[in-house]
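Anyone able to model this chain together with adenosine-5'-triphosphate?
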Amino acid sequence: MNVIELNSLRYRWPGHRRDTLAIDGLQVRQREHLFIRGASGSGKTTLLNLLAGILLPASGNLSILGKEMQHLAGSARDRFRADHMGVIFQQFNLLPYLSVLENVQLPCHFSTRRKQRAGDMQTTANRLLDHLGLREDLRHRSVTGLSVGQQQRVAVARALIGSPELIIADEPTSALDTDTRDGFLDLLFQEAETQGSTIVFVSHDPHIASHFPRIADLAEVNRP
Ligand SMILES: Nc1ncnc2c1ncn2[C@@H]1O[C@H](COP(=O)(O)OP(=O)(O)OP(=O)(O)O)[C@@H](O)[C@H]1O
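re: yes, here you go
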């Protein structure tokens, strides 16, 4: 079974005169690591929002882990995402009134499945943050005092906790220095390898593309 199976997908933002996305087909298998590149404004984030079930296609089929996203109601899609996907978006959506550790553990509160897979949540959260090099003295503090690069690490740890089958990442390393970026990639691939996860990754950074076995040019698959 493909983790991502997309056929004749079309999507148009409200008020736009042309489709943003028109993709005949895209298949991603389990354990595959796909890097998607494309010019600014070409629709990469829009595609990731569709894959995450945040947006729905206007037409065509999109199934994730065998589930047709357009057949799920909004709340069911939210639950499906919490159970099976780790999502890192450009705006990290961290909750300001929670501590770093609480933010990382958040998916386990929305998903019993993620909680079971995480084991001891606090230990797992700390292990992920250790790997990402986030200082221990910051972990009980609110996320509001963190730098952008530190917030990014919290968002990354939150996406990885509970080993989701599909990891969707939109420019997750843009605010990281080179060492932290490489540490993040090592951790990402290591976690994915251990858990058999599939990764879809969008970035402008050509150095990152070189770590990926499969690269898709959005301009080649998207023909609106
Ligand atoms: N919320 C929105 N409402 C209306 N149009 C949008 C919205 N988000 C994106 N678009 C439009 O969809 C197109 C694709 O945008 P998208 O953000 O998916 O591109 P991108 O490839 O991720 O760009 P970047 O690399 O700059 O992040 C653009 O023309 C953009 O204006």
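The CA atoms of residues 91 and 128 lie 20 Å apart.
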